[in-house]
Amino acid sequence: MSNFLQRIFKENNQSVIGVDIGSSSIKVVQIKKHRGKAVLETYGEIALGPYGGVDVGQVVTLPAEKISEAIKDIIKESNVTSVVSGVSIPFKSSLVSLVELPKASDAELKEMIPIEARKYIPVPISEVTMDWWIIPNDHGDLDFVDSEDEDGQKMSPEHKVQVLVVSIHNEVLNTYSTIVKEAGLDTGFFEIEMFSSTRALISGEIDPVMIFDMGAATTKIYMLERGVIKSSHIINRGSQEVTNSISKGMTVSFDRAEHMKRSLGTLPEADERKIYEIISITMDYIFSEANSVLLNYQKRFNKTISKVILTGGGVAMKGVVELARANFQTTVEIGDPFSKIETPAFLEGVLQTAGLEFAVAVGIALRKLQEMS
Questions:
Q1: 233 and 319 in a common domain
Q2: Which one-letter DSSP state was computed for residue 169?
Q3: How far is the CA of 183 from the CAs of 74, 176, 178, 249, 367, in angstroms?
Q4: What domain range includes position 138?
Q5: In the Cβ-directed half-sphere of 130, how many Cα atoms lie within 13 Å?
Q6: Residue 344 CB: number of other CB atoms within 10 A?
Q7: Strands 37-47 and 84-89: what pairing?
Q8: How far apart are CA 222 and CA 234, in angstroms?
Q9: Hey, CA dihedral for 129, 238, 356, 176, is it positive or negative?
């Protein structure tokens, strides 16, 4: 009996890690459950640029063995003690579609969805792994756009069901399986990053919300209602675009431009004014695209976005939050990925800025911890 109780205690208190493999860095977060709460044990980030012979902060495409090497390095540097994990898959490596179908039984939908999904997936169904979720409709007609059945007849809302269909190419999954195996991880699942971010950032919001996630290579836009993703979009510009613009505008190296971007507030006034102008020009395009996504969603579903939540490393740049509030005609909040985790008091100030990059890793770790409860 003693051994049994010890085993149960150990299982319930086992540490887990979330691993976010990004385009310019890898982030890890290790948490465990203590007295019913998720507790932060350690976290860390490692730049991928040097593994590809480029500067820190640059986007780089690496072979599986180099990514595995970087994972092992960050695990060692961050004093991570667990290999029990979940791992993110980039949004750009997936295909997410919102499909409307006639209401039917679960068995009928299981047959209908793969057939309908073929219209949205540009490769043979046999080459992808697919999953789907039926989105609940609690608000009547306004949740739906006009649609037709197979015979071209209009479907009324009570006869429709919305399904979020997600597919990932099998080659992508095979590559990530190789990465985690070589890194020595015990990975229970792969998850598309947008679901991980949402888990970390959203807490019971009912009204429509937009998540604005600015990474190094891209900016991702997720539209949610009642905590469910109903629409998503990717903008092929991120914080690296800002660094490139500073590099050209200030006639400095990428490395120097990255340093200047991160040092705003301590540079000479003339340099700061010029850099702010450069940042504004680059960000105007990103905000314009994001606003188009927001307005199209509101028009399509006849719903008003109640707030925009900012996350991602690019949001930590000085001045970006103010630009966001000037561009979006709604409430703008800075996301807090660590809000669902107990953290040491001395890290509170650090995580308010650095923590913006860890939403995906935190979300993955929370899922893994929940699965083991």
A1: yes
A2: E
A3: 11, 10, 9, 40, 21
A4: 93-169
A5: 23
A6: 10
A7: unpaired
A8: 9
A9: positive
Of all residues in the chain, the percent with pLDDT exceeding 90 is 68
Residues 144 and 223 in one domain: no
Domain membership flag for residue 75: no
Task: Clarify whether residues 211 and 317 are in a common domain.
Answer: yes
Looking at every residue in the chain, the average pLDDT score rounds to 89
- Residue type (1 letter), 49: G
Torsions phi, psi of 44, nearest 5? -170, 165
Helices (H), the chain: 2-12, 64-77, 106-117, 170-183, 193-201, 239-250, 254-262, 269-301, 320-327, 348-353, 359-371
Q: Are 257 and 244 in contact (CB under 8 A)?
A: yes
Q: Are 198 and 184 in contact (CB under 8 A)?
A: no
Whether residues 98 and 146 fall in one domain: yes
pLDDT confidence bin for 319, thresholds 50/70/90: confident
- Which pLDDT band, with edges at 50, 70 and 90, does 76 fall under? very high
